[in-house]
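Lab channel / #folding
Pinned by the channel admin:
"Please post every new chain as: sequence first, then the structure tokens as a reply. Keep commentary short and put observations after the output so the thread stays searchable."

First post following the new format, from NK:
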Amino acid sequence: MAREFGAPPVVFPSGGNPTVATGGNIQQRRVPTAPFQPSRPSNSGIPFMSFDIGSSATNTAGPIGGGTGPIGGAANFDEEEPLLDELGIHPDQIWKKTKSILNPFRVNPTFHKDSDLSGPIFLYLSFCLFQLLAGKIQFGVILGWIVVSSIFLYIVFNMLAGRNGNLDLHTCTSVVGYCLLPVVILSAVSLFVPQNGAIRFGVAGVFVIWATRACTNLMVAVADGGEEHRGLIAYACFLIYTLFSLLVIF
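Reply from TO:
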């Protein structure tokens, strides 16, 4: 025997949403809501942070360097200093200081009052290169002798000058490094000079005297209190550059 169930009738309104009438009250089916969308800032300067693809086409913000377009960015790059100047390397000053050493009879100390280590490092690498061409790997030895020679000459000069001495270690290292130029030339010339013979020692002596004279004049000129002890300073410089010349001769 079939059983009848008393189900309430379903009424479909004209809007399209079915409704179910329960106890005289009509409940409409819940309409699905739109997914969450983040708020769009009105004045965002970065297109991809504004969540609006169309805003990137109308955005007129310039490059990161500033300005309102590529012209402004190029202008900022033009105002930047050269990379060598930012690193403290001035090729024109290095060349002027090097040329002042080339004349052994008249050394111009004006350029050496502003000390730097770029030129001495270049001369050190050149010296090591010529020694390498001669079959001698002495990178560490030459660098160690430069450091020890600079400290030695710095102590000797300030002890002789006393309270009047104002020579600092940076200036002393710069002068010792630039005056290494005659020894570098000696290292290049020795590649074409016979290994054994008095000629090699005679050429080395000329270059050692050249370096000693240049270093002594610069030391007395760039610092105070050394004029009275020029002979002792010259003796210390002679020992330093004789030591470097022995690396070339033997």
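NK: The longest helix spans residues 198-222.
TO: also worth noting, The radius of gyration is 41 Å.
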